[in-house]
Amino acid sequence: MSASEIAHARLQRQRIAGAGFETAAEVVRWMGAVQAQDYRQALWAIGIRMREGTVTHVEEAIDAGEIVRTWPMRGTLHFVAAQDARWMLELSAARMAGKGSRRLEQLELDESILEQCQQVIERALRGEKQLPRARLMALLEEAGISTTGQRGYHILVRLALSGVICLGPMEGRQQTFVLLDEWVPASGKLAREEAIVELALRYFTSHGPATVHDFGWWAGLTVSDAKAGLEGAKPGLTAMAAVGRECWLGSDGYPDHSPPSAAAFLLPGFDEYLLGYRDRTDVLASEHAGRIVPGGNGMFKQTAVRCGQVTGTWTRELRRGSVDIAVTPFEAGGDSVATWLQPARAYADFLQTPLGSTTIQQAL
Fold first, then answer.
1. Which of 26, 110, 120, 152 is the most exposed place for a label (fewest CB within 10 A)?
2. What is the Cα–Cα distance from 158 to 109, expressed in whole angstroms?
3. CA 35 and chain centroid, separation
4. Helix 223-233 vs helix 212-219: angle between axes, to the nearest 10 degrees?
5. How is residue 339 annotated by DSSP?
6. SS (H, E, C) 190-242
7. Sheet holding 264-267: strands in order across?
8. Is pLDDT larger for residue 212 or for residue 243?
9. 48 touches 350 (CB < 8 A)
């Protein structure tokens, strides 16, 4: 497979192109996990993979507990399907706790203090209560536990990794926290080896073609664990040579490998199409990588994708009664407003807001 064929297959596999899903829960379960440190961007990451999804549909799935926002891998917020939350957290908890132990020590958060934090927060949330972060921080302070600096953040992450809490519905502009055991119905447990294989099968089916190193990076696993997961998942996967690498994808025959279409898409920041891989050069030229993450600050801009390649960035401006879209290509020429009208309309439809102007800005 060539790089362009890889890009086309990934667009199809990730359901950005081709057949989308009916529900947000179907999207998230198919993807395994959807990166979600930016809440609003993550809603669009789910919506663009639905047939006629709107922001209302996605938030209804959150409010119903069908999809859950927590820290299942790499210490990063993701949306996961409710039935997957526990086994994914259990798979990553020990490794993430080990990696974060030094930081907890620096913040003077030992096991005794963390146990006190758990007691305070469990007492506050018990009975299906939903409280925003600010209220939980206030309760910890009232209990004599400092939340200054990054202590509050690390307390919440540790409790989430331990399966005590997760993020719940929105309250105004803030997402609340809830008790995981009250919010998410009990589900079957997976042994660690089973969980790694299941995660590998989900990843390669939804993100393939991809390498074992892509999988290991995405899942936050060691190379040996990633290889073990791939080995166990192989009966459901197909291997192929792709630009000199051994890649894997699901054996279900979807999609075909016809040449890439000229379709254009406006993807959110932090989208799995880019961040779902350790090696991103199949869809993003190396010379343009710094334009997606200026200064290497970890904040990924929204990407404009044409013919499977990231060709620029885009921004939106919400006005009274409409949304304006501006696309900024990496290179001058080749982009017209007509290219981006349909993707802009798709985004406006997702927001349930009329599309205002669609413009092309000067190339970066």
1. 110
2. 10
3. 1
4. 120
5. H
6. CCHHHHHHHHHHHHHHHHCCECHHHHHHHHCCCHHHHHHHHHHHHHHEEEEEE
7. 264-267, 303-306, 309-319, 322-329, 355-360
8. 212
9. yes
Q: In the numeric block, which tokens belong to residue 43?
A: 């809603």
pLDDT in tens, 94-123: 787 777 788 899 999 999 999 999 999 999
Q: How far apart are the first and last CA of the chain?
A: 30
Give me the domains of the chain, ranges plus CATH numbers. 3-183 (no CATH), 192-250 (1.10.10.10), 284-360 (no CATH)
Q: Give the strand pairing for 303-306 and 309-319.
A: antiparallel
Report the alpha-carbon distance of residue 43 to residue 264 in Å, rounded: 19
Task: Please work out, in degrees rounded to the nearest 5, the angle formed at the alpha carbon of residue 33 by the alpha carbons of 71 and 88.
Answer: 55
Helix (H) or strand (E) holding 249: strand 245-250
Q: Which of 193, 166, 178 lies closest to 91, judged by CA?
A: 193
Rounded CA gap, 53 and 39, in Å?
Answer: 16
CA-wise closest residue to 220 among 75, 357, 21: 75
Q: What's the token pair of residue 273?
A: 């199409």
**For 233-253, how does the pLDDT look when each residue is reduced to its tens digit (9 = 90+)?**
999 999 999 888 999 999 876
